[in-house]
Specification:
With 178 residues, the protein is α+β, with helices and mostly antiparallel strands. It has four helices and seven strands, in the order H-H-E-E-H-E-E-E-E-E-H.
């Protein structure tokens, strides 16, 4: 919100009203001080896929696009710091893909120790190496976990995010395999 004391641009009225009615009023530290007139909030994202926090800056002066760019760069730097200090530790293990489609995929494994990394409804981020020797960075939501015969565990997920290059590589493979 660049300036709470000025009527918003007509295209931003709905966002402005949502902010005032749901965020500003429920945040006691903001609404009780009445000195803040602007706010910038940007997500902190792991691999530009999974949001794990927010960086919020409040101001007693209206904010500009340049200020937003600085806060966005700060959130990227904060994420890089978290990765550098291993807040997240990616698995080095590889899983076999069992099913694949435009909207999702499933992979299988035998060792129960991996179950702790997957829970229905949670978001995961992984690389998939396609048989075309191309790679896709995937953001997905775990939709189901099934126990099959021979102690095989099948985890199905729905894709919610891929960058443009990953999407092109993934779609190319799907088209070739049909």
């Amino acid at each position: 919100m660049p300036n709470l004391n000025v009527d918003p641009d007509p295209s931003k009225v709905e966002e402005h009203n949502f902010y005032i009615n749901h965020i500003y009023r429920s945040d006691i530290s903001l609404s009780s001080r009445n000195k803040y007139v602007a706010e910038i909030t940007v997500p902190i994202m792991y691999n530009d896929v999974i949001i794990y926090g927010y960086l919020q800056v409040n101001s007693s002066q209206p904010v500009t696009d340049g200020m937003y760019a600085v806060v966005r760069r700060m959130s990227i730097a904060l994420n890089q710091l978290m990765v550098k200090h291993q807040l997240f530790f990616p698995l080095e293990d590889r899983f076999l893909v069992a099913d694949i489609s435009h909207k999702g995929m499933s992979f299988v494994f035998k060792e129960k120790k991996f179950l702790r990394f997957f829970e229905e409804g949670t978001k995961v981020n992984f690389d998939i190496l396609l048989p075309t020797q191309k790679k896709a960075l995937v953001g997905a939501i775990i939709r189901n976990i099934t126990f099959l015969e021979n102690r095989i565990i099948k985890t199905g997920c729905e894709i919610f995010k891929m960058d443009d290059t990953s999407k092109a590589n993934y779609d190319e493979f799907i088209e070739l395999s049909q």
